[in-house]
Design goal:
- This protein has 10 helices and 5 strands; from the N terminus they run ααααβααββααββαα.
- By secondary structure, the protein is mainly alpha-helical.
- It folds into 2 domains: 78 residues, no CATH class; 104 residues, no CATH class.
- The chain has a 3-stranded antiparallel β-sheet with strand order 1-3-2. It has a two-stranded antiparallel sheet with strand order 4-5.
- Helix 2 packs across helix 4, helix 5 packs across helix 6 and helix 7 packs parallel to helix 10.
- The longest helix is centred in the N-terminal third of the chain and has 14 residues.
- This is Excisionase family DNA binding protein.
- It comes from Prauserella rugosa.
Length: 194
């Protein structure tokens, strides 16, 4: 399996050895809920009745079903591995480390702290700059939204953002010179019911 995993990591452009990647996967899996929870356990009898009346299946997953957590664990592991340190972001932007920390504090860059310091998601950078208009978008993101949610939003095509009549990601919209206020309006709704 090690050779196959090395091949997959190399094809994906991830610069991590297999042991390190598997440790990231294990950490991500530990942060998730148990593998086979009883969904009905989280609701009162009245709530269960309403939810089942509208067709929701509250039974636990069967042993022959794929674990829905697997995709989340893989996403988190890749997200963490591809993130930049403050020093790496500073070199990419051509600024001092303190400027990167200042931009993080002002919500002009996105990041999270882990045991090794700040980590900055790679999606927000080009080869030598931050994505244009990023500061406008990040200031609109609700404070309670984790970095993984913001990354998912910025890298998922949105029907409201179109290039050549095709939905595009907010990141690509900004890179193409699109109005950042349109992305900011969408980002402001992250975490709110549809």
């Amino acid at each position: 399996m090690t050779a196959a995993l090395e091949t997959v990591l190399a094809r994906a452009g991830l610069k991590v050895d297999t042991a390190e990647f598997l440790a990231l996967v294990e950490q991500a899996a530990k942060r998730l809920s148990p593998g086979n929870p009883e969904p009905a356990h989280y609701f009162s009898t009245e709530q269960r009745d309403v939810l089942t009346d509208v067709g929701l299946d509250l039974s636990p997953t069967r042993d022959d079903e794929a674990d829905p957590r697997a995709s989340t664990v893989a996403t988190q592991a890749v997200f963490a591995d591809s993130a930049l340190s403050v020093g790496e972001a500073a070199r990419r932007l051509g600024v001092d480390d303190s400027r990167v920390r200042h931009r993080l504090k002002q919500h002009r860059l996105a990041g999270w702290k882990d045991h090794g310091g700040w980590r900055l998601p790679a999606w927000q950078f080009t080869a030598d700059a931050a994505v244009p208009g990023l500061d406008v978008v990040l200031r609109a993101v609700p404070d309670d939204q984790p970095a993984l949610v913001v990354a998912g939003f910025m890298t998922t095509p949105q029907d409201d953002l179109r290039i050549h009549d095709r939905p595009t990601t907010p990141r690509d919209w900004l890179l193409a010179g699109g109005d950042p206020t349109r992305v900011a309006e969408l980002a402001a709704t992250l975490g709110t019911p549809a």
